[in-house]
Structure formats: C-alpha cells, structure tokens
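Q: What changes when flavin mononucleotide is included in the input?
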Amino acid sequence: MSLIADLRLASPIIQAPMAGISTPAMAAAVSNAGALGSIAVGATDAAGGRAMIAETRALTDRPFNVNLFVHAPPRIRPAEEAAWLDALVPLFAAQGAGPPAALDTIYRSFADDPAMLDLLVETRPRVVSFHFGLPGAQQIAALKQAGCLLLASVTNLDEAAAARTAGIDVLVAQGFEAGGHRGMFDPDAADAMLGTFALTRLLVAKTGLPVIAAGGIMDGRGVRAALDLGAVAAQLGTAFIACPESSADAAYRAALASPAAQQTVMTRAISGRPARCLANRFTQWGAENSSDVPDYPRAYAAGKALNAAARTRGEGGYGAQWAGQGAPLARALPAADLIAAIVAEMEA
Ligand code: FMN
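A: The predicted holo structure follows.
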C-alpha cells in the first residue's frame, strides 16, 4: 500500500499526535506543508474532538490524523489510591497545597466512547490512529466503512500481530527512545524495550504491513534512516514540541532548550503508565516512590493537580514534560519551516 500516494503527501513525515501539546494550528501547518499533521483527542470528549476537527478543517483541506487513546479500563483500588495520595502529601505541601481527596478516571477510553465513534463516522477524518491498544471489531468496521485509514502504535511483534488481525492498515513502530507514553497495550506486561531501529526492522520483515517508524527521529537524516530500514514514513513528536504552534508552557520549552534535555527517563509516577519524560523533580521523586502507582489515567489526576499547584508558584519541575531521547535536537521553528528544514536535510 502506498501510504504516501494515497494521502497525497509530498513528504513521508508525520507530526505525531501529542495530547496537550499538538494543536489544530500545528496539524494544519504540517499538512499544508505536504506532510501529515495529527490532532490528539484522547484527552477530551466528543464535543472537544468535534471542535478540534472543525478548527483543523478551517485551516487546511489536506488530510490529517485524529488520534485516540484505547486504554483498558483502570482498576479502582481505594486502598492503594489512598496510599498513593498520602505519599504525595509532602510534594503538595511543598507547593502550599494538598492532594485531591480522591483520584478520578479523567480520560475515557475510545473502546468505551460511542459518542466519539459517532463523531468520527460523521466527520470522516482521512486518518485515525490508536494508542495504548485496539478498539473492538465493530468500531474498526465502522471507521473503515467511513473511509478512514487506520493506524496503531505498537511496541513489539505480538501487538503488531493483534493489530494486523484486527484489520489495522498501518503500524506505528514506537521504539523505546520515543517521547511520551509508551503505546504498549498492557502496561504491566514484560517490556522488551525494543528500540526504533530493531522494532522497525522486525515489523517490516515480519508483518507485511506498512510501517511508520517513531522514536528519537528529529531531522532529515533520521527520516532517511527510517526509510532505509523499510519504513514508509517517520513519525516525529519531540521535534515539534518547541514549535510556536505547540501548547508547551514556558518551563517545558526552557527545559527542552537547556542541558536538561540530555536526560530523559521512563516514568510511571506522573500518569500511571510508562512515559518518557525530561528528568525533573517529579520523575526524580517517582524513581524512588513508584512501587504501586494507581492505574492510568487515575494517577494522572494527582499528577496534573501537583503540576497545577507548582505552577501557581512558578515551579515548572512537576510537569509532564514528555520528550524522546533526541530532545537536544529540538528546534524552535514554526511547524511549516521545520518540515521544510527536514525535507532539505533529507535531500542533502
Ligand atoms: N502518541 C499518541 O499516539 N497519542 C498522544 O496523545 C501522544 N502524546 C504525546 C505527547 C508528547 C509530548 C510526546 C513527545 C509524544 C506523544 N505521543 C503520543 C507519542 C508519539 O506518538 C510518538 O510515538 C513519539 O513522539 C515518537 O518519539 P519522539 O518524541 O522521539 O519523536
């Protein structure tokens, strides 16, 4: 299948969906520049998704990707959650605040969101992608019927096989280098921590599906290397965080532009799922205190509250500052200029 030709892309570059960071303006700028922009609706509901799709469509008539979280329902474990909130008390106290009284399931999984499915079937985005798992057969059939090309993040061959069986059209090979949440379907499963290089080759050689490489790719040489490995395109997230179109706050941008960008860590403490983050005060605490983290996204309710409390005091070190291992290569360019720079590097 020719992903690039089908989507009429001038460049085999995908701006990764990044909930809370990517924006309709970013996605539209990328799509208008001949690559594929993405919006992430995993952290909002159908009404929020409708607004984001409309905003993107107002800015581009090119294809773009709409991304969903398909996590398993979280366990609600009152005793463990209370212990977790207790453990966070000193961190909140240092910010002059207290933890929330209880945790909450702040994001609904697409697996259990008929209103979001209705929205997608009605608005028919050209590309729909899944993170954290796969929706059910009926949802997949409905989206295919609506003409959507379906992508899914996978981190190993077993997840790829499940995606293939489910009817996914294109695999996103998310290597361990990647910024943000690991797309692994079961966060408690043993993780082989496959890097982008090995994972891309494995999926290209063994699945027969088109593969998009993701993780640690920051420039044209990285994209070229991904294509050499047999990928049909490269998906870049961290490369776009410093763009003016991103929603990253000043502390996040400053950390990304500083030597702090050289240190990223996989942490579960912020959200309840493994995610690669710039090393900061929260990840440091998490490294010593993450024995029994509540399930995603319930732990994230506390993580977000802590960051909000810290930010009122000008302390940015408790944010979910997701970033991949290539973070020091991030460039603060408008998204269209970044695409142009990457394309020039590919052709150099
Ligand atoms: N992937 C998703 O499928 N959905 C998301 O909402 C999402 N949010 C992310 C937020 C940030 C800030 C980052 C850096 C990544 C996120 N990802 C998300 C992961 C990306 O899809 C992709 O796997 C990753 O950015 C690739 O690695 P890189 O950051 O080194 O380029």
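Observations recorded in class: The radius of gyration is 19 Å.
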